[in-house]
Structure formats: structure tokens, C-alpha cells
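Please discuss these two lines.
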Amino acid sequence: MTEITRIGVLGAGAWGTALAASLYAKQEHQTLDVPVWALEEDVAAALRNGDGNPLFLSGFDLPSMQASTDIADLAGAEAILAVVPAQFARASFTTLAPHVTAGTPILLCAKGIEQSTLSLMTDVLAETIPQAVPAVLSGPSFAADVARGLPTAVTLACEDEQLGKTLMSSIGQPAFRPYWTDDLIGAEIGGAVKNVLAIACGTVEGLQLGKSAHAALIARGFAEMTRLGVAMGGRAETLAGLCGLGDLVLTCSSPQSRNMSFGLALGQGQKVEDILASRNAVTEGVATAPALHTLAQKKGVEMPICEAVNAVLSGQTTVSDAMTALLSRPYRGE
């Protein structure tokens, strides 16, 4: 594969819309066909009419897009960006499968672990669209920044380096810079774990425990992320890059992150169900926390921060008790 001229986008939430907008910006410099699949007809209609995406990414002047709710419109795509939330990936991939030709690379852009199976998104893809070639796109990238064309760097994980270079050339541009690795597991673990840790960091902010505690939580959370990534078969150096540490720092440091803002509200005393009810977008860390908790136990990996988040979300403990338990842990070597 030397040149990709048709790239499909599966999912038109904030991140899917931002990625599609980035691809449409490339049309000024190369021939590129970008069909977009949206679940909601009003979202598809707004994108088609050049009205942006008021539901998921409001306030942006976006180009008119080739958008529809018919997943068959992605047929013939030479690459597909899969941007549906992790817990809905299996159903979406199953519907997409008949329209994917053998050898088509699918870039997995959702960051999470499937609750019911503890599967990474690459595993879900292999089970539902076995003829596809898996790739992972992950890194410190707010949808609003990408939609504005602000500088962003991400990890593009793909086993075949030549295909990786083709994909980087196809989706990259000066303000959107992908960096290649062949470590898909490391890229996936980084993206999944950072969302749960961001809830913890937001909670610390909501409790007004100070920036020192916030920094300590990021550092110790990164240790948890690395332990699990290595236990799963990923590489520590991958997790020290954009898709691990980079994404962790961004997501844990700004209320612009849905996960961090969720934790912030939690720390301020709001209830889990009330926070979720007030949102129209998925907070991936909430869905990932229980799967991550079980996966860590299965792998024998100690992840006290992530375990505390899961305990709070599941109602097993309170925010204050979880914080007390973390601060009461025995002293140990770093």
C-alpha cells in the first residue's frame, strides 16, 4: 500500500469529528475521500450541512462532511479510523465487518477495556473483523485542539513498519504528528489506564488536596500503568512515550478531559449517577475501571490507585475513605 485515498471514520463523537475534520483539512493538498459514519441522524445531518457537530463538539466551524448513519457507506475504505467508545466497539465492528475487505487497516482510536471479556480493542477487532489489519492511534490529544488545528503528537502503533509509515503519511500533517511503534499492547494499555487515573487526579483536585498530591498521583499512577503494560506484553519505553506518560499528563491536568472533570465533580461531593446523567458523551474511565480492576487481579499486578477508583465508582467505599486508605499504605521503596 503506497497511497491511501479513501479513509473512513467510524463514529462521530467529539474525537471522531475532530479526526475527520483533520482529514478534511488535508484535502487542500491531496485527493482524499473521507466518509463518516454517525450513530445519530441529527449529527450526520449537521455534518453534511456544514453545521458542525452541536451535540458532541459544539462551537467549531467545520467543513461539510460526507456523513451518514449507513455503515455500508464506509465500504471501499482503504483505512478506517474506529472511534466508537470501547464498550460499544464489538457491536459496531460486527455490523461493519461485511463491508471491510481483507488487509484493510483499522486504526483503533477508543481507549478502554471491554468489561464483559477483559479484552483490549485489538482482541475485539480480531474476533469481529479478522480480515482487518489492527493499528492503534493514541496519545495526548484533546478533540478541541485537533479541531482547531493546534499542534498535536500521537502514537501510531502498527506491527508492519512500512504500513505504519503509509498510515502516518496518510493522516499526518504539520499540526498532527503521528510517531510509529510496533507495540500495540503498550499503546492500548496506556490509553485505557490513563482514563482511570485521570478520575483519581480529578478527585484530588476536587478535594483541594494540593498540587503536590496531584503530581504524586500522576507519578505513582504511571508506575501502575507501566507494571500492567509490561505484564500484558507491552514495553516500558512505549508507556514512557506519547501514548502513556504523555496522555497521562494531559488527561490528568485539565478539566477539559471528561475523565478528569468527572473526578473533579466526584471530589466536590457529587454522586456518580448524577455526574453521568448530566453528560451526553461517554466517560471511558468509568466503564474501564471495573475491567481494569479484574484484569490487574488476574495478572497479579498491584494497582492501588486504580483499585481505589473502582471501589468508589462501585459504591464499595467513599471518596474520603479511599483517600485515607491510600495514605495509610505501608512505606516502601519506589
